[in-house]
Sequence to fold (532 residues):
Amino acid sequence: MNCDWVKENVALYVYEELADDQRHELERHIERCESCAVELGAFRAFHRALNTVRQEEPTPNLLTASRMRLSEALEEAQQHKGWRRFTFDFAGWLYQAKLAPAMVVALIMIGFVGGGIAGWQVTRNSVGQPGPKATPSANEASIAGISGITQEPGTNNVRIKYNTLQPEVASGSLDDPKIQQLLLYAARNNTNSGVRMDSVDILTQKPEDANVRQALMVSLRYDNNPGVRLKALDSLRDYVKSDTNVRNAVLDALLNDSNSGVRSMALSLLQPVKGDASVRQVLEHLSQTDKNKFIRSESRRVLDSLGEID
Amino acid sequence: MPAEVMTLPVGVSGSTSAPGRRGHMVSQSLSRVDDSQLIREAQRGDRVAFEELVRQYDRAVLRLALHLTGSEADAQDIYQDAFLKAYRNIGSFRFECSFYTWIYRIVTNLCLDHLRKRQVRKEDAPVTVDHNGEEFDLLSQFADERPGADPERDLMRRELGGRISRAMTKLTPRERMVFELKHFQGLKLRTIGEMLSTTEETAKNTLFRATQKMRGALGDMR
Fold:
């Protein structure tokens, strides 16, 4: 540890943001280095001076006026529901674009260049050149949109990336990222609960993957089908102890799920972490107030099995 | 997300005794549970639940907006925009972070936009404007009215407040935000990083630059 390091980190020391070992090292350095001790004194004086100035609190009038104004606006406001949450916010995009003129210019240029290349390609084909290779039989009606156009440098080859509305079949190993991506998509978005159930069923084979666990937690929290939720919950069993996000999702299921089977399983999954403060808190709450007699008695039983803690 | 998610409004930091800390943990757990229920109800379109959620955070949100914008009217606009945005988008809240971090992310983004626009307009005056359009100095407006207050010391304090306000205007919007969240709101740099969608390391560097500039602008304060 040298004086430059101390001078750069003296603020973090005063704001109690240094790691314990660094804090210890810095204190030892200060004891034997006068110039760094002076620097620390100067920073403390700066910090103290800022603290002598009282911070303005919002006045009660301002707070009340803000709350009333918000309350009025909320009466008119609509929540973004269902599919709207996943749609492209064109107005928002336009607003962003307005703030980034350079981006707008770039997009216009890409449009011109892309249009030029496409026109050139069409012209080239119309004079008897062979058609584009590896193009499936995509007619105009099946093209959902063109997402990118690039030309291979120094050649006549143009690569056009487009989306089609034709059904596709993908097959591959569960370790294949493309397969995983499709499974995650199916678990989150598919309207058919049978498909969701199948995808969650397969995803449960890879709960060690953080993305998969995330998808399983989303299924546990939001899937309409209790069978899917149960399956997702069961697959998270081994991660209740090590992953606090999983623990919170299971706690949420225990507190809020509409299905008593899911809640019972959530309760049993929380056994290994019953000593956790947040789990105890929830169990206390449920043992006293839950409408379901089984959940009440089981929560009490788990709490009693805990003995005295602290 | 840590097991104990901080869901209390800012300004609850500070060392406590062991029993106090335990009580704090319990209240955090309860608050998390309460928040979670309110969020779910709000997600189902319950406006009353949402307003209850708002009341847990709105004083801190208004304070932050007021400090950063220096204007009651602007602070009120940011308050309004932030909570309306939260209401409209609460359906997409997936409990991946605490609601506290989520709402602060919205507020800090709106404040940064405001500060950037003002920087472009070069209207960053070291004074603030109340609802009547009258100017006052944000950090030095309060006279100390406690019995036995020393008028001379009070005057010095107010002068210092004015100097600090002017020094803050030398910071970039992001530096100002990090400095405000760290020094005046008492948040940890890791939390600040999460709120600003950046790393703790970047937040540290930004804080370092901000304090250097502030010290340079304020001179010797011994």
Q: What stands out?
A: Chain B touches chain A through 67 residues (CB under 8 Å).
